[in-house]
Write a sequence for this structure.
């Protein structure tokens, strides 16, 4: 009976802990326990002194395991490459038009694509019209990645020691005073060009090579260049964590809404009933332009977010 | 001419991959990995997919190289900086 | 052998896959493991895109009013690879963030040393 009660109690506590974790209340048991590790040298010295006898035995065992592991790894790698090479020998010749990958789907995409999607660039027409849900999932993957990196690298009380805080504060002070003159002059020339080029690539995604992903990355690298050359303090005047959250989630929601709209207008192969316009004009091809802009914004924010989290640990 | 280029570029890719594997310093391997991406983007142009070329040049050579180098700075693997 | 030379992109992709795979298994340094993973990614993309290429045809950016399927290469691999490249950069960023956290905890990026330190912590 008492055992049952104990189990029940444990379960309850586990449930309560889970509730606390969901609510974000991790004060008593932090998700990533912060124990600032001691400086490298003293630690290894201590280890050496304590573990000389036992570690020798362990080391021999580890060595033996290591050599077996190495041999096995090389064998497996060679086996994989051999099997794949044999497969390559069976493949059809490179660049032949009767390659089995070139089937009726490709014909349909190329011949009907222009009138159905209105996009001149068939790749954009494919990934943002026929397979738009796939691309939506991918933008969500990017958002998820930047969320995970935020969880891992965002600075707060739990994962930074006082020394590190001091170090970053000093870096901030240095950054405030020191401005590299060559870098800032060149950056002043380059940043507008890069931004405009990124916007051009995003807006022309459906009529020329490019699109949301590449244009978004170019815009993101322009933002990164700004942050590198003028410092994070000036960057935070117009781009903070709040703007990041708002802009990214708004772009994702607009994407979801504009694709869900096609559910209501016609369930048959997801028509959107938006006039396609003349092919080749910027304002054409229905939803593709809007979706491209959304993807571009998400990608640009994600790339800048990666940079900011990797350098300073804050957005 | 084109055939020579088509044979040289994959060979260069393999050379870059081997150089990444066997280089002693981390910074060297990161820089070689970035050049690997640039060669890759030329190959995309040869394979008639300009979308991929633009994306690879921006992502592979730009952002991921930057992230790798900042990671090296964080793990104190860069020589000649105050962090080492 | 001749077949391998004609299919040179596929052959290079397979060799690159092998190099990246062995990097992933044998390197002790975590950063190099991540780079090996990126090489494996690129190898798969190269293989996919070379399957879509057809000699003498243009990129799938339509020219003129009527599109003829015999004039353009296969757009499907390009779309798939475009998706893949952007996902692979987010995977790289995530694993690099994990490496930074491991360095903060153990002060090393050597995989064996991290395993040993983690074991010692478990013993204590």
């Amino acid at each position: 009976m008492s055992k049952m009660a104990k189990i029940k109690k444990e379960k309850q506590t586990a449930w309560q802990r889970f509730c606390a974790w969901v609510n974000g209340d991790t004060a008593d048991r932090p998700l990533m326990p912060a124990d600032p590790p001691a400086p490298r040298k003293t630690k290894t010295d201590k280890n050496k002194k304590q573990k000389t006898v036992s570690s020798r035995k362990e080391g021999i065992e580890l060595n033996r395991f290591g050599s077996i592991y190495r041999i096995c790894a090389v064998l497996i790698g060679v086996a994989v490459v051999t099997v794949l090479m044999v497969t390559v020998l069976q493949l059809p010749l490179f660049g032949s038009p009767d390659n089995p990958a070139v089937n009726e789907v490709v014909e349909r995409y190329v011949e009907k694509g222009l009138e159905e999607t209105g996009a001149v660039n068939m790749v954009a027409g494919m990934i943002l019209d026929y397979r738009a849900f796939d691309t939506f999932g991918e933008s969500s993957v990017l958002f998820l990645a930047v969320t995970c990196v935020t969880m891992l690298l965002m600075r707060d009380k739990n994962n930074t020691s006082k020394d590190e805080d001091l170090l970053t504060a000093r870096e901030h002070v240095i950054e405030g005073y020191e401005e590299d003159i060559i870098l800032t002059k060149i950056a002043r020339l380059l940043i507008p060009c890069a931004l405009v080029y990124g916007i051009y690539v995003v807006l022309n995604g459906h009529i020329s090579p490019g699109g949301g992903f590449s244009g978004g990355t170019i815009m993101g690298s322009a933002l990164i260049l700004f942050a590198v050359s003028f410092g994070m303090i000036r960057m935070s005047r117009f781009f903070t964590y709040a703007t990041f959250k708002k802009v990214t989630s708004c772009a994702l929601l607009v994407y979801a809404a504009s694709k869900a709209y096609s559910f209501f207008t016609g369930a048959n192969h997801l028509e959107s009933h938006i006039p396609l316009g003349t092919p080749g004009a910027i304002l054409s091809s229905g939803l593709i332009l809007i979706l491209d802009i959304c993807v571009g914004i998400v990608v640009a924010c994600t790339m800048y977010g990666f940079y900011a989290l990797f350098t300073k640990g804050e957005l | 001419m084109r055939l020579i280029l088509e044979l040289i570029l994959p060979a260069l890719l393999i050379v870059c991959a081997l150089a990444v594997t066997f280089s002693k310093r981390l910074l060297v391997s990161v820089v070689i990995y970035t050049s690997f991406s640039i060669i890759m983007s030329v190959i995309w142009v040869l394979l008639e997919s300009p979308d991929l070329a633009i994306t690879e040049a921006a992502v592979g050579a730009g952002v991921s190289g930057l992230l790798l180098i900042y990671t090296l700075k964080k793990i104190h693997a860069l020589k000649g900086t105050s962090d080492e | 052998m001749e077949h391998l030379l004609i299919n040179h992109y596929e052959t290079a992709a397979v060799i690159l896959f092998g190099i990246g795979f062995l990097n992933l298994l044998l390197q002790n340094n975590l950063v190099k493991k991540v780079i090996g993973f990126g090489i494996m990614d690129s190898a798969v993309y190269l293989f996919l895109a070379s399957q879509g290429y057809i000699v003498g045809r243009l990129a799938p950016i339509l020219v003129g009013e009527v599109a003829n399927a015999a004039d353009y290469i296969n757009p499907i691999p390009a779309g798939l690879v475009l998706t893949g490249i952007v996902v692979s950069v987010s995977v790289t960023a995530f694993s690099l963030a994990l490496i930074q956290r491991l360095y903060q905890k153990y002060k090393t990026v050597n995989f064996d040393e991290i395993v040993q330190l983690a074991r010692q912590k478990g013993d204590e």
In short: Residues 2-123 of chain C form a domain with the Helix Hairpins fold (CATH 1.10.287.3510). The radius of gyration of chain C is 21 Å. Residues 34 and 93 of chain C are 10 Å apart (CA to CA). Chain C has a mean pLDDT of 87.
